[in-house]
């Protein structure tokens, strides 16, 4: 249902800014497995993913670029 999906997306959004690199990477990979409304992606996720392209962790950088390339 939509309410559940929105809650999941909000949790993923918060996880993208977690202090632990593996949590950020897992959140990015999770984004690639679900269908996301384009407006929500552009407004809520794309700006954070663009920041993650410069993450200190190489795996996060690569995953962020891969997620952006998919959209």
Detailed description of the structure:
With 71 residues, the chain is mainly alpha-helical. It has helices at 2-15, 21-31, 38-52, 58-70. Helix 1 packs antiparallel against helix 2 (21-31), helix 2 packs parallel to helix 4 and helix 3 (38-52) packs antiparallel against helix 4. The protein is globular.
Global outline: globular
State the end-to-end CA separation.
23 Å
Q: Describe the biggest sheet?
A: none
Secondary structure class reads mainly alpha
Order of helices and strands: HHHH
User: Which residues form runs of ≥5 with pLDDT under 50?
Assistant: none
Give helix % range. Answer: over 70%
Q: How many extended strands?
A: 0
Beta-strand share of residues: under 5%
Q: What is the CA-based Rg, rounded?
A: 11 Å
Q: Roughly what is the average pLDDT, rounded to an integer?
A: 93
What's the number of helices?
4
Could you name the key traits of this structure?
75% helix; 71 residues; mainly alpha; 0% strand
Layout: helices, strands, pairs:
Blueprint (H helix, E strand, L loop, with lengths): L1 H14 L5 H11 L6 H15 L5 H13 L1
Helix pairs in contact: 1-2, 2-4, 3-4
